[in-house]
DNA sequence: GTTCTAGAAC
DNA sequence: GTTCTAGAAC
């Protein structure tokens, strides 16, 4: 088998010939601009104002991104005037959660935002709290959803009501991502490594009790 | 955001 | 020797 590396013609003049941000960070934008071009597995729902996609690398059994189709670069570019959009965003999120709970009442959800998102285009995570998924692979993945790095919807809405700008300290929030692995359901702290954490999460899912002794 | 992989940890 | 993490990616 050959390493066919001869595909050098630059395809698709995407938005960033002058911008310095890498292409991968802009991947969400196409879902907002052309939701109709994606399969139902990728785009769960869309209308004129919002798109709901299934996360390409889900970190739990159910993991969606809910986004306004209007271009908003990131959480730091939210303004007070977006409070109306936010309320509808929340309703979209709640709608997905209800739908998923209909499929499996055992699922618990949070909806919210990363303090320091990697992807452009403002997006809200709707993620089930089992965190059982092959795509959850490292400490950063874990801590981004289980430490204060994850901001619940209500917190952001309240911040926006109080201040015109939302800004999180980069240094501080990056340190949160390096914290030890602690269980989000029981008092187990400093879990040895990711494979051990994954077994622990499976146990929680199986016996459905949020208090584990081990 | 992911992939890949060197070398740390076990 | 194998498992696991964490940093580079031009």
Question: What does it look like?
Answer:
The protein has 214 residues and is of the alpha+beta class. It has two domains: 23-168, HIT-like (HIT family, subunit A, 2-Layer Sandwich), CATH 3.30.428.10; 180-214, no CATH class. It has helices at residues 27-33, 83-103, 139-146, 153-162, 170-176, 194-207, and strands at residues 43-46, 50-54, 63-68, 109-114, 124-128, 150-152. Strands 1-2-3-5-4-6 form a six-stranded antiparallel sheet. A hairpin with an 8-residue loop joins β2 and β3 (63-68). α2 runs antiparallel to α4. The model is unreliable at 1-18 (pLDDT under 50). It binds a DNA duplex (10 and 10 nucleotides) through loops. One of its GO terms (biological process) is single strand break repair. Pfam families: DcpS_C, zf-C2HE. Residues 30-136 form the HIT domain. One of its GO terms (cellular component) is nucleus.
């Amino acid at each position: 088998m050959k390493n066919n590396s001869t595909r050098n013609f630059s395809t698709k003049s995407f938005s960033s010939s002058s911008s310095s941000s890498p292409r991968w960070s802009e991947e969400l934008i196409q879902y907002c601009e052309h939701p109709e071009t994606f399969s139902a597995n990728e785009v769960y729902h869309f209308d004129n104002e919002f798109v709901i996609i299934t996360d390409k690398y889900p970190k739990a059994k159910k993991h969606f991104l809910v986004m306004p189709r209007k271009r908003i670069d990131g959480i730091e570019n939210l303004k007070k005037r977006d409070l109306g959009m936010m309320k509808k965003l929340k309703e979209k999120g709640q709608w997905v959660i209800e739908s998923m709970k209909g499929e499996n009442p055992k699922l618990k959800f949070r909806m919210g935002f990363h303090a320091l998102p990697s992807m452009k285009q403002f997006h809200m995570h709707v993620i089930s709290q089992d965190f059982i998924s092959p795509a959850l692979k490292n400490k950063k993945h874990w801590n981004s959803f289980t430490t204060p790095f994850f901001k619940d919807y209500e917190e952001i809405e309240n911040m926006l009501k109080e201040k015109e700008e939302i800004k999180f300290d980069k240094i501080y929030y990056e340190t949160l991502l390096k914290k030890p692995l602690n269980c989000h359901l029981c008092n187990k702290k400093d879990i040895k490594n990711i494979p051990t954490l994954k077994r622990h999460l499976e146990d929680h899912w199986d016996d459905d009790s949020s208090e584990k002794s081990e």
